Amino acid sequence: MKRLTPLLATAGLLATSLPLLAATQAAAAPAPSDYQPQQPSWHRCSPDQPAAYECATIKVPLDYQRPRGTALDLAISRIKSPDRAKRHGVMLLNPGGPGGSGLDLPLMMEEAMPKEVRERYDLIGFDPRGVGASSPISCGLNEAEQNFDRAYRPETFPSDVAWARTVADKCREKAGSVLPHITTRNTARDMDAIRAALGERKISYVGYSYGTYLGAVYTQMFPSRTDRFVLDSGVDPQLLWRGMIQVWATEAEPAFARWTRWTAERDGEYRLGATPQAVSATFWGLVARADREPIEFQGMKLTGDDIRSARALFFYPQQAAPLVAALKAAAEGAPQPAGAAVPDLKELLRAPAPASDNGTAVFWSVLCGDTGAWPRDPGQYARDAARDKARYPLYGDIASNIKPCAFWQRPAEAATPVKTRANVLTVQNEWDSQTPLVSGQGLHRALKGSRMVLAKGGEGHGVYLADPNSCANAPVNSYLATGRLPDRDVTCEAAPAPAQRQDASPAPKPLPFPAGPGRF
């Protein structure tokens, strides 16, 4: 599957701008009876893209309580169903983030979807408010300020507090009038405005990662307008949002234990230890050594905190084992081991920050603006981080350390209670580093009436169509094609990892989720 760069603003995406009044007035109020939205003025997105790939810009209220006040641009895209006789409706798409662009998702999903699903929908992409081509926001953050993997140490905690305060202050200074309105609830309202602008009674939806929470909120705010919803790699509504970062720490521990077992069984190949305990001792010995003197590796000087920050790697034993073996060789001044390819650790630790901080600005706006549950006392973060460093040594202190939300302005409204029945399909890999299984199960429990498809043994973030060999694709395709949920939850056996497949088929090209190790 092709990776497509969403630089659509340069392709004239903002050329068309039509006034669109609010589809909703209050929290979940229906559109006024006299509300008559204008249809979007569609145009070809770019000369180098297919003609069927159309773009438009509509207007939505910055504040839905003041629908005739300041307006935002909302960039949307579309590829129509190829068979109008079989068309069921529209399907909105979201890749996660928060802060991920979804404009080019129709192109990617069209390529990946089977015919019996594809022909039933007009595929609708959009950049959520504040993102990309939809009135983008910025906090003016530099590369260092965008990194929030900060290990807790008493001597460095004052600088962590200063960082968190600086991010919050810069965001408030740069975009303070807009930030309170860059929230999940308002993005759900925007989705309903898109529905109204398209003249549809209901919408279907596929959302990944953060997109599962966005979709869940839509089902609660607009239950009568919810059609076929697939929520893939679930965010637990009970863990907003600090708890979702902390779950990266709690669930890294069983993933690490699984890795030690897997690696011990292959001691002849990796030489990291013949028992899980020995493998664990090797790893923590490397961490301690790097804390004393950084290890030169792949052009970086790695501290023990750097190594621990790579916690997501341990959800993929076939990648983690050769990397740790290579790190051990580097620490010992030995030749690098031959055999399995070693992942680029820079992608996990120090990937260059994008030229714009747009994604990071939206990330904090949503995480801090969705809920008022963030502690305001810096000392609470210090205590929690010290506690969790002992409980969850791989990542606990990093997860619980202070974040900019400690200094953010109070949310404009409360988080959405998830109480209304929602007959939707949730999808989950067993070994997902960003939205771990316990999180996906929490979403499934919260959405009464939902069904879950679990790929047992499945690795990776994102399931449906992210791997064309996933056992989860068939039940999701059936639901999207027919609208019928499975009678009960489905657990299927995941396809083997590429290196284990007998046909030696290449690794699938993933959908380009925005979620890296520090995103949903």
Quick tags:
single chain, 520 residues, alpha/beta, 10-stranded mixed β-sheet, two-stranded antiparallel sheet, 17 helices, globular, disordered N terminus
**Strand percent estimate:** 5-15%
Radius of gyration: 23 Å
Name the poorly predicted regions.
Answer: 1-35, 500-509
Number of strands: 12
Structural category is: alpha/beta
Q: Give the termini distance in whole angstroms.
A: 21 Å
Mean pLDDT equals 89
Helix content: 25-40%
Count of alpha/pi helices: 17
Topology:
Layout: E1 43-44, E2 54-61, E3 71-79, E4 89-94, H1 105-112, H2 115-118, E5 121-126, H3 143-146, H4 157-175, H5 184-198, E6 203-208, H6 210-221, E7 226-232, H7 242-264, H8 267-270, H9 276-292, E8 295-297, E9 300-302, H10 304-309, H11 317-332, H12 346-349, H13 358-369, H14 378-391, H15 396-400, E10 425-431, H16 437-446, E11 451-459, H17 473-482, E12 490-493
Parallel strand pairs: 4-5, 4-6, 6-7, 7-10, 10-11, 11-12
Antiparallel strand pairs: 1-2, 2-3, 3-5, 8-9
Helix pairs in contact: 5-6, 7-9, 9-11
Describe it.
The protein has 520 residues and is of the alpha/beta class. Helix content is 35%, strand content 13%. The protein contains 17 helices and twelve strands. It has a ten-stranded mixed beta sheet, sandwiched between helices. A two-stranded antiparallel sheet has the order 8-9. The longest helix is centred in the middle third of the chain and has 23 residues, at 242-264. The protein is globular. The model is unreliable at 1-35 and 500-509 (pLDDT under 50).
Overview in brief:
By secondary structure, the chain is an alpha/beta fold. 35% of the residues lie in helices and 13% in strands.
